[in-house]
Design goal:
Elements lengths: L1 E6 L15 H12 L1 E6 L9 H17 L4 E4 L4 H4 L10 E4 L8 H11 L3 E4 L2 H13 L9 E2 L17 E6 L10 H6 L6 E5 L7 H7 L5 E3 L3 H8 L2 E6 L8 H8 L4 E4 L18 E4 L4 H10 L4 H11 L2 H26 L1
Parallel strand pairs: 1-2, 1-3, 3-4, 4-5, 5-6, 7-8, 7-10, 8-9, 10-11, 11-12
Length: 344
């Protein structure tokens, strides 16, 4: 299966850069490493181009897909370049994967247009899909008739050694008031707990949130992936600060290091990452922004870290991840071909 993969990074890094910006970027790297992929790099400034210029990029994507005889285009980012009218004119099937939650509801119209043209729309969790469903209903709109669920990541490479604990709790997240990584420092302030925030900043993130937190202690900024993982492995627990997480790459990475996770639930008491652990004993949920509950969870969490790691690696293995992607990509191709054969 030949894949054309449009790719953009907030730092304008290439797909194999040592620093990974987020979950969508990591998923793209996984695809590049384990499938027959040609990457179509797009500069981050293109997101601010005029409509005419963005349409040209969409047509360039289609042209390259045809030049390499791609079987499918896999689109992982929002914006008209990646799912707008021009790209949906493609004569090659498109697999649109939504990794995030966006306030712009014009994306609903794009998804439905994609579905009508024979392309596919995928979410990364039922939690994410249900939140979009609520938003669509509020706007008297609907989601595409068929949606699929993509596993965004897996346990990759060699299983890391279980490390000695240096931090009571660690969190990872870009520095903006959506991920709210500094909730960890705020919630454990005044206690004897030792927390670490691992974060990064881009020009597209929340400047005010950065200015407020840029001088915080016990914080690591803009580090390459291997350094981030090494520090994560030294945690007793991991805190997912974002209550509207769509899946939770960092939660999986924590569990893969034998680190149990604490989930800051949304107001309904749910969190998308609760489906990642291999056992209910490997995570705890706290009520939305409950500071005391977090402190208690960090202090009382006792698990067999080797068990957490082994069970996570068994559940989230490369073969299962590849099978999930291949199945949905194949369904996308079959759906597109069937629809366009009917038209002829």
């Amino acid at each position: 299966m030949k894949i054309l993969l449009p790719f953009v990074d907030l730092y304008d890094n290439d797909i194999n850069h040592p620093m990974i910006t987020g979950g969508a970027e990591l998923f793209c790297r996984h695809l590049n490493n384990h499938f027959d992929v040609v990457v179509h790099q797009i500069p981050i400034v293109a997101l601010k181009y005029s409509i005419r210029e963005r349409n040209r990029i969409s047509l360039d994507i289609i042209d390259e897909a045809n030049e390499i005889n791609a079987d499918i285009i896999v689109s992982n980012f929002s914006g008209s370049i990646f799912s707008g009218v021009k790209l949906l004119e493609s004569n090659i099937p498109i697999m649109i994967i939504e990794h995030c939650m966006y306030p712009m509801m014009s994306i609903l119209e794009r998804w439905n247009n994609a579905d009508k043209k024979g392309h596919s729309v995928c979410f990364v969790s039922k939690s994410q899909r249900n939140r979009y469903k609520v938003k669509a209903k509020r706007l008297s709109q609907t989601l595409p008739s068929v949606q699929h669920y993509i596993n965004p990541s897996f346990c990759e490479g060699e299983k890391p050694k279980i490390q000695d604990v240096e931090y009571d709790c660690v969190t990872i997240g870009r520095c903006y008031s959506g991920k709210f990584p500094f909730k960890l420092h705020d919630f454990i302030k005044g206690t004897d707990l030792n927390g670490l925030v691992i974060t990064s900043k881009t020009d597209y993130d929340d400047g005010a949130y950065y200015e407020k937190n840029k001088n915080r202690d016990n914080t690591i900024w803009n580090q390459p992936y291997d350094v981030v993982m090494d520090n994560l492995g030294k945690a007793k627990t991991y805190f997912s600060t974002c209550d509207y997480e769509t899946w939770g790459i960092s939660s999986l990475e924590s569990l893969a290091h034998g680190v149990p996770i604490i989930l800051n639930c949304n107001k309904t008491g749910n969190h998308a990452s609760e489906n990642i652990p291999a056992s209910s004993s490997h995570f705890k949920k706290i009520k939305n922004n409950d500071k005391n509950a977090l402190i208690d969870a960090v202090k009382t969490f006792q698990v067999d870290r080797k068990e957490v790691q082994d069970m996570t690696w068994e559940k989230h293995n490369l073969e299962s991840w590849k099978n999930n992607f291949t199945e949905i990509a194949s369904m996308t191709i079959d759906k597109f071909n069937s629809k366009h054969k009917k038209k002829t």
